[in-house]
Design goal:
It contains four helices and 16 strands. By secondary structure, it is α+β, with helices and mostly antiparallel strands. The site of magnesium ion has 7 residues, from strand 1.
Length: about 200
Amino acid sequence: MKIICIGRNYVEHAKEMNAPLPPAPIFFMKPESALLRTRDFFYPKFTKNLHYECEIVLKIDKVGKNIDEKFAHKYYSSCTLGLDFTARDIQQNCKEKGLPWEIAKSFDQSAPLSKIWIPIKNKAEEIKFELEKNGEIVQKGSSQSMIFTFDQIIAYVSKFITLKKGDLIYTGTPSGVGEVKIGDNLKCLLMGEDVLNLNIK
Ligand code: MG
């Protein structure tokens, strides 16, 4: 199982990062050990600026390579929410030096994932989500404000990498990313339902 993450997939988030809009999906990967399925997240010692990024996550249902965009909807049927934790200080340093981002993005437990999946009945359906930090809404997103759709992402990624059943795609975060500190609580709401609740310890 692999975790593919899309970067800069919302206009407002690209702006807040002072980054240009991508002409094609930007992706990177996290290992299976990045998954976190418990309520407690332990703040890593190697960063002083850990950011939350709440994202819609797709689960791939069957193997596929070079998937045509018009058939991409056959490769997933449900979604949930996850967090793409990012050590922003380390990422910034990597960017400045032109180095890969893995140590900022792919560390153990950097990908908390909800256990509650909702079916995607038709591809035109709007999927809305929110992230609350300590009871306050800090991020609001919708599948309809993504730069690259689920189907475009699957078509693009599968040109390079074979997708397999059980693979996860974190589809990018909307604007409002920010820091978490020990003692914070993060709550991810998918279509208004609390699907992931995390305590930072
Ligand atoms: Mg992200």
